[in-house]
Amino acid sequence: NAGVTQTPKFQVLKTGQSMTLQCAQDMNHEYMSWYRQDPGMGLRLIHYSVGAGITDQGEVPNGYNVSRSTTEDFPLRLLSAAPSQTSVYFCASSYSRWDRRQETQYFGPGTRLLVL
Amino acid sequence: RKEVEQDPGPFNVPEGATVAFNCTYSNSASQSFFWYRQDCRKEPKLLMSVYSSGNEDGRFTAQLNRASQYISLLIRDSKLSDSATYLCVVNPADYKLSFGAGTTVTVRA
Q1: Do A35 and B91 touch (CB under 8 A)?
Q2: pLDDT digits (tens, 9 = 90+) for A99-110
Q3: What's CA A88's distance to the chain center, in Å?
Q4: Residue B99 clears pLDDT 70, i.e. is over it
Q5: Which residues pair with A73 in a beta bridge?
Q6: Which of B26, B53, B71, B94 has the least C-beta neighbours within 10 A?
Q7: From the list A102, A109, A110, which residue is nearest B97 (CB)?
Q8: B66 part of contact set with chain A, CB < 8 Å
Q9: pLDDT at position B95
Q10: B18 — contact with chain A (CB < 8 Å)?
């Protein structure tokens, strides 16, 4: 099992550029999510998905889009990059529980993004 | 007010010492509680879940106090390898997790 994989590991963008951060998991997890981590702040939820075809917004969704066409993949798109989106981005996956409580989250290694 | 608050530290302790720290959470309806460990520039990894009655995993002990809305982590017989940032994580709502900013622990030889 590769677990949760993310690409790229590092990226530098110019303001206004768009890009897609890739995330894939091979554990057949239903639940996938994207977080951003900034210094002095906890991980903040951007978007999440409870299964293929189902996505929802988290705490800080503005400027980001997601889709979930397969169980394995959950890409995050930055529509028009801004310096405020400079951050470390983590993708995570877990089993979905019937009572909607969170199970253990498995994180990918992260993507470090710098927007100039 | 942040949903989860932690003392950022750092807690600098010698090898073999005991270190303990808390986090507080604001949503009394929270159902699940966790401690994650994050090494420098790496992804968070689950250290342990926190159960209502408190639980141990080797040198690590976690406690939950619902009345005062805090959870704690105690590390006994600290090792150099315990140096990391410890994230307090709470499940305040369906499918959501709230992360604290982390408590940094540095164990010195």
Answers
A1: no
A2: 666 678 899 999
A3: 10
A4: yes
A5: A24
A6: B53
A7: A102
A8: no
A9: 72
A10: no
